[in-house]
Amino acid sequence: MDNFNFYSPTQFVFGKEREGEAGTYVKKYGGSKVLIHYGGGSVVRSGLLDRVKDSLTKEGISFVELGGVMPNPRSGLVYQGIDICKKESVDFILALGGGSVIDSSKGIAAGSLYDGDFWDFYSGKLVEKALPIGVVLTIAAAGSEGSGDSVVTKEEGMLKRATSSDLLRPKFSILNPALTQTLPAYQTACGATDIMAHVFERYFTNTLEVEITDRLCEAVLLTMVKETPRVIADPNNYEARANIMWAGMVAHNGLVGVGRSQDWNSHSIEHELSALYDCAHGAGLAVIMPSWMEYVYKHNIMRFCQMATRVFGCQMNFENPEVTAVEGIKRFRSFLHSIGMPINFEELGAKEEDIPVLVDKLGLGDGKTGGFVSLTSEDVTKIYEIAAKAEI
Amino acid sequence: MDNFNFYSPTQFVFGKEREGEAGTYVKKYGGSKVLIHYGGGSVVRSGLLDRVKDSLTKEGISFVELGGVMPNPRSGLVYQGIDICKKESVDFILALGGGSVIDSSKGIAAGSLYDGDFWDFYSGKLVEKALPIGVVLTIAAAGSEGSGDSVVTKEEGMLKRATSSDLLRPKFSILNPALTQTLPAYQTACGATDIMAHVFERYFTNTLEVEITDRLCEAVLLTMVKETPRVIADPNNYEARANIMWAGMVAHNGLVGVGRSQDWNSHSIEHELSALYDCAHGAGLAVIMPSWMEYVYKHNIMRFCQMATRVFGCQMNFENPEVTAVEGIKRFRSFLHSIGMPINFEELGAKEEDIPVLVDKLGLGDGKTGGFVSLTSEDVTKIYEIAAKAEI
Question: What is the pTM of this model?
């Protein structure tokens, strides 16, 4: 096991009607002037925004608002948020939404206490200060509610880039599974795919003998395999929603990846798809991740056998383990298809002829990625090609 | 899933030689005058105490010392520690040891900022302030390095009582698995038993459909079943030690018990054994927990089947599930025996004729416990009786 630090100081506030406590927690963590940041109309229509405002008002906390976050959140709105925070002396940011809203909030939090361009933090500069952030989560997917990560897209060139800092970990995150019950099935499935992908990026490691993290990874994956079809069949299944929502946090606060090398190539390869086509990140992952698996599985057949048997219930073929490894990947893709995810370029709305553009934008040049298997531009091209034509 | 809060803000610093960073972390979390608290001579003989002192000195941090913590830590030493902290204006407590040292440190931390008797906090009073605590862990067992819990024994009447507060969660915990390599096999096995017991206390729940926490529980248990025999066979197996050490933290920082009712009757029933005989808590649990399982399994046979199949690899008997349930309990007891744990009163050094004393000290009177199955004094008597005579 590799040496590591694990730090997840967020106060998680989980369950029915907990959004009514938003004001209490903002106050507890020192907020007196809040920027409420959110996406589109659903937060307004559902009454969530009003309930949260009431909760702030009850605690004597004043606020300003900034809506309009889009999926794959844009830098333009982050700049607007920073302007507001500086002008209005905002001291706390409250994100109402899913990963895009939280990630946008993190950009604003870092940029508001910085004299330069916040994009610096998405270009390699370390965050040194940030406004405190609170979250009321409405989509189980990104895990941003429990992580220090943020991904923002710069409109100019549609550059999708990430930053990470413990300073961007939310002070508190309110997770009410009932708030996710109104999500369309497609978005629910995209979220589930993202959660599983967050685990797989950590599961495929070159570090030996990390049984505890392996088993924790499998705990989340097994939960997703059981619970996702239940919410697709019945969007109002609170218990299944609750299991998925908590699994989404556990998948990405760092716990299931400690002490081991990780991969993250599928995420990088996918980001170019959602940047170019503005498709949902989870949908892109459904197309890319099984294709990546098909391309790299020979690097460690036994690890794919472990996934196949422990997660997807395959019988181990002891005479020919490769059969089991391949069967596991097949079952993963079938599972994604069964919950309504696209599995190839056509279903996603991507075009095979764009592959050179995608590879070029990834910017590997003559270099290589790191991870489970180090990839060249040629490897990435082949993975996109598998993804373009994938079938059940 | 029940509503819950989950808050585990400790900075975990894991891996080889990390104790050399103790000074850095004490400084980071605001300590300038430290009480180093530890147990017996092993911390001195191994050179750990000196290495930690060097690390503090390097950061310009001054310190005082208090050794002598015994297993089942006593209130007498806590009072001494509080006196020292008050006289010497100590602002940070650094625990070097296992659960007993950490629990004693927590008592001192709470008592040092309180005008009354620290025992109040072990008699139901809520902790309102506490000195910050850091940990250098030397035994994987109690999970106190990641929890807000503390158990201390009052010499007068050998009363073993607990307190819990988020204020008692360590600011940082340094976990170097190599420090546990010198532990005798018996202590290693006691620790492993305690870790598994912490999970089982949460696993046996009356809350339905908490798949994610079930699976996380099983992740820890499966890890312990795999790794414990390896360290018993080879005490210097760093990888197995590492898996167990991290599993011990995950087992008890709260994560594997959220959203569900819990039990904790085995812990209460055991506490009377270790209080009366001063035996190791883990050894007492090895005697009590399988006996408790035998007594209560009919309350939910399917849950015991889940344990049997998912954790101990039993084949499910679909025609007669009770067979599987019983087989799982049998395998658990055999596992404990195989790692060198006592499984009945004689092996533990307890006496069957003391059962009325044990039951009386538990103090249920005509009342009942809570938990998975609510127990009367008569039930507890029967569990002690099963434990007295248990065999493989």
Answer: 0.97
